[in-house]
Amino acid sequence: MNSKYKSLKEKVYIANINLVKKGLVIYTFGNVSQIDRDNGIVAIKPSGVDYDKLKPDDIVLLDLKGNIIDSTLRPSSDTKTHLKLYNNFTDIGAVVHTHSKYATAFAQAKLPIKCLGTTHADYFYGDVPCTDIISDEMLAKDYEEETGSLIVDTFKKNNINYHLIKACLVACHGPFTWGDDAEEAVFISDMLEKIAEQNYITHTLNPNIESIKLSLISKHYFRKHGKDAYYGQKI
Q1: Any catalytic annotation for residue 36?
Q2: Among 121, 129, 127, 128, which Cα is nearest to 218's?
Q3: Is 137 left (phi over 0), alpha (psi -120 to 50) or beta?
Q4: pTM recorded for the entire structure
Q5: Domains, the chain, ordered by start
Q6: Band of pLDDT at residue 227, cut at 50, 70 and 90
Q7: CB-based contacts of 74: which residues, under 8 Å, 6+ apart?
């Protein structure tokens, strides 16, 4: 293992294993990456490797153009989506993609996950968006890179702040999340799945439910996040 990036590889390995422990992946369908911004190096899960066989040294290192630095294994097939996010959301530190049950169901239904309550508002400042369906023109280009473009364009078109909503559903595909590091990005994926499950149940009880008011979203989100946050203990 490249000793310079040993810690980065181990963090990404642990984060990928945690996807399994949290029940967020099906077989090998899922991946975590983390970036070393100072050196422009991304560490990501190799493509198609079973989680029970995955080792820290299997984690693939590459640059922001997708050039492999140190591995004989191919990186995740979703690598270009991750790179698109790193190159456009220029201060995120990690990206996660899963096919978790409820969040993927919303993506397949081509629906956003509405902010229906304060559990959602604690971690996402509004509805989690769903992209448009990928066009045939985009499919004819580089599929994974264009998937990243769908996410970036969805946030730009709808004027959504990627710092306040660290997740997006790709229509007909599944969820992507991000964070300051791999640990946070996995946590966001886990919260997204739990919120999607609650959202599904709520829609079953009341199909006409609408998102809660912005003032209530703001109260709950900013009491946990930002300079005036007061939830929890001071470190």
Answers
A1: no
A2: 121
A3: alpha
A4: 0.95
A5: 3-224 (3.40.225.10)
A6: confident
A7: 46, 47, 60
Q: What is the pLDDT of residues 144-172, one digit of tens each?
A: 999 999 999 999 999 999 999 999 999 99
**Tokens found for residue 97:** 């993609």
Kind and range of the H or E run holding 200: helix 182-205
Sign of the four-CA dihedral 185, 135, 130, 165: positive
- 78-119, pLDDT tens digit by residue? 999 999 999 999 999 999 999 999 999 999 999 999 999 999
Instruction: Return d(Cα 22, Cα 43) in angstroms, integer.
Output: 21
Task: Name the active-site residue from 57, 58, 70, 122.
Answer: 122
Distance CA 229, CA 115 (A): 20
**Catalytic annotation present for 231:** yes
